[in-house]
Amino acid sequence: MEEIPLWYSLAVFFVLGACVGSFYNVIVYRMPRGISLINPPSHCPLCKKHIPLYYNLPIIGWIILRGKSACCKQPISIIYPIGESLCGLLGVLALYAATGFTTNFTAPVQSLEVWADALALFWLLLGIYPVSAVDFKYKLIPDSISVGGIVAGLIISFIPGGMTPVESIVGAVAAGGGLYLLGWVATKVLNKAAMGFGDVKLLAGFGAIMGVTRAVEVLVVASILGILIMVPYAKIAESRAAKKASQNKKASGDEEAEDEGAGQIPFGPFLAVAAPFMYLWGDALKELYFKFVLGE
Predict the structure, then answer these.
(1) Omega before 165 cis (within 30°)?
(2) Are 103 and 3 in contact (CB under 8 A)?
(3) Which string of DSSP letters, residue by residue, matches 222-287?
(4) Could you report the per-residue pLDDT of 21-67, keeping only the tens digit for each?
(5) Cα–Cα distance between 57 and 64 in angstroms, integer?
């Protein structure tokens, strides 16, 4: 590590991020459809033919194929290389942010604490893509991200300079258990499901990576973001649904059933976005809050 310059490490993190992004593309496509992530191996979704490994290279494979499948010449969505490129850039951001946005790209990264922060941010930043893509469309959070976050947090905790394994375990149990209890109480009060278990597991993963205090801060910030976006969106969506139902009723003379999902936005994406933000700038945000809101 001592002889590897930062620019080379950033390039490695870009490649790793792009590879993870390629795997996340598989998760986003297969998991909601109930298809195993392992079997069958990579294949064309149209003609079902096996895709060779060299065509599966992140970003490069799409460029080599010129955006068309090698087997049946059908267009391959540009979303795939864009997602892989974005994940690669997020991987670079994870390491660069962990170094404190240094301008010395020739110096090696020697601190184990920086590497622990970089790996934690790598997981948090790249998790935004699959959580948002799947949860927005299917109201699901992949276990590979939520439960995987718990495992990742425990592994990272063994790197000296960061959280200890005990702090990671306590963070996972307290954050996940606390949100589960909050959801259980809200469900009893509202007499309807108030919190998905996927959100509970996701916050438990954040607790394992960031500790219970920071995970609670993530929950608070995510809730504020959710309220600011959900309330106006819900009103607009409900208005559109009511207008559409009224039009359908006039056209057919039958009363349309109300869409229970109208105006609903999943909570997982807000948690996913708030996590890396609070990991990086949580202390600065608290200082601003105490200074300008509480006047301390």
Answers:
(1) no
(2) no
(3) HHHHHHHHHHHHHHHHHHHHHHHHHHHHHHHSSPPPP-TTTT---SHHHHHHHHHHHHHHHHHHHH
(4) 998 888 888 877 778 777 777 877 777 788 887 788 899 988 988 88
(5) 10
Proportion of the chain above pLDDT 70, given as a percent: 91
Residue located via tokens 């590897």: 4
Burial degree of 217 (CB within 10 A; 0-12, 13-18, 19+): buried
Structure-token pair, residue 145: 């991200």
- Is the pLDDT at 272 greater than 80, yes or no? yes
Q: Kindly give the residue spans of alpha helices, DSSP state H, lying in 56-164.
A: 60-65, 79-98, 112-126, 128-138, 143-156
Which residues contact residue 244 at a Cβ distance below 8 angstroms, ignoring those fewer than 6 apart? 256
Residue listed under structure tokens 């301008």: 103
Tell me the domain boundaries of the chain.
Answer: 1-110, 142-296
Residue listed under structure tokens 């622990």: 116
CA distance 144 to 129: 13
